[in-house]
Amino acid sequence: MADLTQDDWVSQMEKDADAVILDVRTQEEVSEGYIPGAINLDIHQGQDFIDELKKLDPDKSYYVYCRSGARSGQACSIMNQLGIAKAYNLEGGFMKWTGASTQ
């Protein structure tokens, strides 16, 4: 897992042909806005969340965010434990996001 600043997260993702954006917030949080193209998997879903992670392609790169960066950091650690080596946490999360977003 790597914690990346927004600039590093975006620039690395733009160069990554295997990039997938993963939003680990609740549905309520997502309804307030999200990064375009993000897949939502709520980390609060416990075993269901882990089951969904196990379905992901371990060869892809996952750019993960939550509201503040804490849950996405946990998600990246879980992903690493499940064999997904390329998981990148957005420092500061969606609260500090200044890029494009959808509501």
From TrEMBL:
InterPro entries: GlpE_sulfurtransferase, Rhodanese-like_dom, Rhodanese-like_dom_sf. SMART domains: RHOD. Residues 15-102 form the Rhodanese domain. Pfam families: Rhodanese. Signal peptide: none annotated. This is Rhodanese-like domain-containing protein.
